[in-house]
Amino acid sequence: MEVPILKQGAFLIATFQAALSDADLNQLRMGLVQQVVKFRSRAVIVDVTAMDVMDSFASRTLREIAHMIRLRGAETVIVGIQPEVAFAMVQLGLTLEGVATALDLEEGLAYLNEKFKITK
Amino acid sequence: MAKRDSTTTDIELKRTEEPSELLRELVAHLRQNRTQLREEWVVRISETRLLTAMTKEEIFAEATSVYDSYVEALETEAFEALQAYARNLSERIIPRGVETHEVVGIVLLLRDVLARSLFAKYQTDFKKLNRILDAYEPAANRIANTVAVGFVQERERVIRQQQEAIRELSTPVLQVRERLLILPIIGVIDPQRARQLTEQLLRGIRTNRAKVVVIDITGVAAMDVTVANHLVQTVEASRLLGATVIVTGLSPEIAQTLVTIGVDLGKMNTVGDLQGGIEQAERLLGYKVASITEPN
After folding, report:
1. Which residue has the higher pLDDT, B237 or A119?
2. Which residue among A81, A83, A107 sits closest to B199, beta carbon to beta carbon?
3. How confident is the model at residue B156 (pLDDT cuts 50, 70, 90)?
4. Domain total for chain A?
5. Tens digits of per-residue pLDDT, B212-269?
6. Between chains, do A86 and B209 touch, taking CB under 8 Å as contact?
7. Which of B146, B164, B182 is the last residue of a domain?
8. Residue of chain A nearest B233, judged by CA positions
């Protein structure tokens, strides 16, 4: 299942659908980095609102995505983690350390706009 | 007819009366002598100093209904009805301060008073007395059991209700500014309450779109390692929802616990008191508080 990646100005937005297989996650990781290179994006927002469970592989993949994108000089923001998912994650010790997070897409964009001081 | 334990054999019984006939006979006797036996029971209750929380009139009124329910249970063997009656009675007397040993005590007294009266009635016919007791004893014991269990169940229900009320009472999530939540925690936190706090907070962050949360634990005297870990997890989970947590009001004991379990204090944002915490939260949110002075 392909994850749609949308371009919003200097940012890319990738919206996770519900159950993503390990193969889907790997494909997304490569796809996102390629798109960042192609569009010279400043940041990527990964929206996981639709995910009602986060396992250690998904969590590790998200961290790897953030690291790879940082190597291209861009920022990653994970948005939309559900309360139940957040609770389960911290109990398993998956804290997404070093990766920025925000409540939802709106907050994520606000954070990035503030950070890069982009005025319309 | 329900099965009952019987110490005499079935063959002996069939030669004379059926147990149900005996039961009817003794129930009739208990009904005929109702006034006298009930009076005797009430006297025994006050002799043993049970039900001190109730007045003589109250005891008499309850005794009447208990006596009638007791005899009816003997007759009909409808123990569910008796249990419902016991729970109903308990609902009334528990707030009066009546305790389990008192309820069990008075039911056993009634059982004894009635047994003695059966002894008196059938003392000339020893064989019949035995058969009467064979019918009476298992039923009487089951009644005592049913009433006691009904009482205890009601007490447990009240306790659970109170615990639930305490939990709800003590975990408010309060919005004091746009994007700023305060969670004042008071009292004892056990792992279950800690978990409930976290769930409530995370939901509150999402509903109120909070960016900063101040968790104040001034009112928490002590915290064990499990709960301290839970607090750390709450901070981490809140961050996953994009909110920063400031913990205020740590007592020296709790500070010691956190250091002992090796909490990475870089991850935990702490301020001395609630006032300081709110001030820092406001700064994080870009608020500035200025006093309004009248030019003079």
Report:
1. B237
2. A83
3. very high
4. 1
5. 999 999 988 788 888 888 888 999 999 999 999 999 998 888 888 888 888 777 778 8
6. no
7. B164
8. A90
- Same domain, residue pair B114 and B48: yes
The answer to whether residue B292 sits within a structural domain is: no
- What is the pLDDT at residue B239? 94
Mark whether B130 and B250 lie in a shared domain.
Answer: no
**Token digits for B24?**
């009817």
Domain contains B137: yes
Whether residues A86 and B237 touch (CB distance < 8 A) is answered with yes
Is residue B21 a part of any domain in this protein? yes
Looking at residue B56, its amino acid is K
First-last CA distance in chain B: 96
Q: Which residue among A90, A102, A103 sits closest to B237, beta carbon to beta carbon?
A: A90
Residues B148 and B225 reside in one and the same domain:
no
Residues B55 and B152 in one domain: yes
A111: CATH = 3.30.750.24
In terms of residue numbers, what domain contains B194?
Answer: 174-285
> How many domains does chain B divide into?
2
Cβ–Cβ of A81/B240 closer than 8 Å? yes
User: Is A87 in contact with B203 (Cβ distance < 8 A)?
Assistant: no
The answer to whether the beta carbons of residues B208 and B179 sit under 8 Å apart is yes
Q: Tell me how far apart the 2 most distant CA atoms of chain A are, in Å.
A: 41
Interface test with A, best of B238, B241, B267, B268 (most A CBs within 10 A): B241
The dihedral through the CA atoms of A75, A7, B237, A67 has a sign that is negative
Contact flag B198-A87 (C-beta cutoff 8 Å)? yes
DSSP-derived pairing of the beta strands A5-8 and A11-15? antiparallel
Residue A4 has what DSSP assignment? P
Kindly list the distances between the CA atom of residue B96 and the CA atoms of B53, B57, B64, B99, in Å, as whole numbers in the listed order.
6, 14, 18, 9
**Nearest Cβ partner of B233 from A79, A83, A91?**
A91
Minimum distance, in Å, between the CA of residue B246 and any CA atom of chain A: 17
B240 and A91 within 8 Å at the Cβ level: the answer is no
Could A86 and B242 be called an inter-chain contact, meaning their C-beta atoms sit closer than 8 Å? Answer: no
- Domain limits for position A30: 5-116
pLDDT at residue B170 in the model: 66
Residue B195 lies in a domain: yes
